[in-house]
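Annex B. Sample input.
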Amino acid sequence: MRRQRFRSEPLAALTSLSQLGLALGLALGLTACGDAPRADGYGLTLVELSLTTEAIAGLRQGAYTETPVACRAEIDGARGRCQIRTAGSTTRDDLKKNFDLEFPHEYAGRRRHRLSAMSGDPSGLRTLLASSSFALAGLEGPEVEPVALWLNDEYLGLYLLLEPIDEEFFRARDDRAIALYKARNLRASLEATHDLQSAFAERAGEANRSDLRALVENIDQATRGAPHRLEELVDVAQVLRYMAGAHFIHNWDGIDNNYFLARSAREPRFRIVAWDLDQTFGSVLDPTGGELFERNALFRLLYAARQPAYLGQLQRLNQLVTPEVVARLVQAFESAIREAYEHDPFLRGKPLAEQADAIERRAEQQHAAISEL
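Annex B, continued. Sample output.
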């Protein structure tokens, strides 16, 4: 079968030793010579990883320290040495784990890649649709591609190959990161300055987080009606657009946890870059309600102060990503990943078609609610 390159552009019991290794998210490499199955991409890009038994042990032991180990990788026929580590602060104990890969050379224009197990979206449909919706809205986010992942001749399942948000991300867009902070630990509410180190991981910029501290202080001043410089520090129009996108796809995980605050040479004010869009397309939200934003001081402030502009962004997105557009995208994604999904050793949820139907119904209901504004 011809492998299908596919990017998110707009428009039972585990009993055998081998299965136990898969349950840990690591193939043990114990398949006898001659019995190893032939790696199959199931119509997607094929990612094959090879690790020694020592490296597998090191990867398992370093799950909580993110210690990398050596590996060899072949992605869509391109081979090379790499480093691999377990990734994802809240998913390290999951049966199906996330991994970070780093190559000494570039693949697809970059050296670092995330292999996402999609713990909040085992089908991958939500992440793909959310990424496409954000792209249609003109919001920044990583490139994402569904892949079939194999490790030492064991199929680990359907994964998403994600572009990490780092300095390479900005260089690929002819930009340069000045400051980059990853929201984490369900603490990135921008409420106070004393908790910034645990709330945000610094990925580029000022180690003392002085610019981030100034942002939080000015949010507080604006909230209290005191003089502030918030307009100088924040790209308000972009943040309102992100808020509308978060509401449209019900990205509750991107309010005080999974998002990036970025400043760059092209736009030195803070803006939001979306990340980890698997926890999406759940409930239908009231477009006139601001409950979604209560856990973020900046979002809460802008919702109260700029509600007409926010609702305008929400209506714009509703016109761009109609139920018809959602249906076409979901059907294309479902067709692309179906075979890899059906062979995945971990996915035991609802059939893929049922998940696709649920997403399409939710899109129709959310569209109707916003259209009544």
